[in-house]
Amino acid sequence: MASPNGMIDRMRIIVDADPGIDDALALYYLRDRPDVEIAAIGTVHGNVPVEQATANALRLTERLGLDVPVATGAAKPLAQPLMTAEDVHGADGLGGYAGDEPTTSPTGQSAAEQLADLARRNPGELSLLAIGPLTNVALALQIEPRLPRLLDKVVVMGGALNVPGNITSHAEANFWHDPEAADLVLAAGFEDLTIVGLDVTMQCHAPAEWLEALPGDCYPRRILGFYADFYGSFLGKRGFVPHDPLAAAVLLEPDLATYHEDRFAIELTGRYTRGKIVADQRFLAPDSPFGRDIATERTKAKYAVTARTDVFLDQLRRAVAQP
């Protein structure tokens, strides 16, 4: 959208990520958008240990020509042991193609401090795209309790509401990697919070033909090979699911998706369901004698349920079809 002076209005975004192949694709997607300014990147444990995630974020900013501060974030979840996902993303997190050590360095701040500080200094001007476990966001809430009022829009990639999980039978990976952090974020009162979970991302499977149509020399095609092989074994058909880029697209173009609005929580104690996102979806009358199971003081959020898959995949193809 153009402003009255003819300049493009740019959404300023803080990215919190655990790069990660689909995290890399999300950065390609954002870099391709003239209506975006990436204000900062914070890294977190998840797909790989946080030290590897930070190195990958630095590599990607260098490759993409982004002059963006990168802050190292939480190395472990709030209340459980660290688990990573090299089987999905490769030992280096980028499908074996991480490459040389980065020439740049992270800032001296933690990712949580960076998020809280930027939000305080730019009230209402920054949006947050959180595409890894939510540990940094939970820690930032402890540093700055006003964070939900200081940020503009927040989009989180996580959850499996009415579909199976991917890391367990019921839980999606990002929320499962730190359930306590995810629940703290959902309960924090963010006024414009959108959750992009497996209910919608799994509809956006990009088949092998999509990948093979990319130029042979483009970096995304190289790193996607490992990812596509994993999905071939996981789903029985080669290709990949672009979870994180879809979350980025929904942040920029909310009308790419449709939504269920509700109050959400994370299951913290279930033997089989720990890390699962839940909502009380019963059709109860306002004066029903049955109480809501999810605390009614929680602020409602939007949960994406369908997406304009063809439009999004075309956008993503254009964004990644470059060296």
TrEMBL record:
<dbReference type="InterPro" id="IPR036452">
    <property type="entry name" value="Ribo_hydro-like"/>
</dbReference>
<dbReference type="Pfam" id="PF01156">
    <property type="entry name" value="IU_nuc_hydro"/>
</dbReference>
<dbReference type="InterPro" id="IPR001910">
    <property type="entry name" value="Inosine/uridine_hydrolase_dom"/>
</dbReference>
<keyword id="KW-0378">Hydrolase</keyword>
<dbReference type="InterPro" id="IPR023186">
    <property type="entry name" value="IUNH"/>
</dbReference>
<protein>
    <submittedName>
        <fullName>Purine nucleosidase</fullName>
    </submittedName>
</protein>
<dbReference type="GO" id="GO:0006152">
    <property type="term" value="P:purine nucleoside catabolic process"/>
</dbReference>
<feature type="domain" description="Inosine/uridine-preferring nucleoside hydrolase">
    <location>
        <begin position="13"/>
        <end position="310"/>
    </location>
</feature>
<dbReference type="GO" id="GO:0005829">
    <property type="term" value="C:cytosol"/>
</dbReference>
<keyword id="KW-0326">Glycosidase</keyword>
<dbReference type="GO" id="GO:0008477">
    <property type="term" value="F:purine nucleosidase activity"/>
</dbReference>
